[in-house]
Design goal:
alpha+beta; about 20% helix; 60s Ribosomal Protein L30, Chain: A; 6-stranded mixed sheet
Length: about 120
């Protein structure tokens, strides 16, 4: 059985998808970009602000579903420019100080709304 997760503390879906879906103790969070859930607009122009917002959005969805960052087992990071990798890695790492999840990171040609970063997340109880 699956449960659709939706919270006003994370951005509304901008296309046909759910913020997250929980099934059999696993939580699948759709790719999050740096949208401020209060304004619906992209946050900042720099990778630092955008990465922090993406991680805050992920945290809001985790919390709404009854999960925490420590429950995250896998992420996929999409970057508009791999030159930002070290900065993203530093900020991202601060959310996973112990036992970080498995991760893949890719450079992509473009992201929704001109975002510099998108992260999708899988968590498990």
């Amino acid at each position: 059985m699956k449960r659709i997760i939706s919270t006003p503390d994370a951005p509304k879906a901008i296309a046909t998808y759910s913020q997250a879906v929980e099934a059999n103790g696993m939580l699948f969070i759709s790719g999050q970009i740096a949208i401020d859930p209060n304004t619906g607009k992209l946050v900042g122009e720099g990778i630092e602000d955008q990465t922090r917002q993406v991680m805050k959005n992920i945290g809001a969805i985790l919390e709404a579903a009854g999960f925490e960052y420590k429950d995250v087992v896998k992420t996929t990071c999409l970057l508009s420019n791999m030159a930002n990798y070290a900065i993203v890695n530093s900020i991202y790492g601060s959310f996973f100080p112990e036992n970080p999840p498995a991760r893949a990171a890719y450079a992509v040609a473009g992201l929704p709304m001109g975002s510099l970063i998108e992260i999708e997340t899988i968590a498990c109880h």
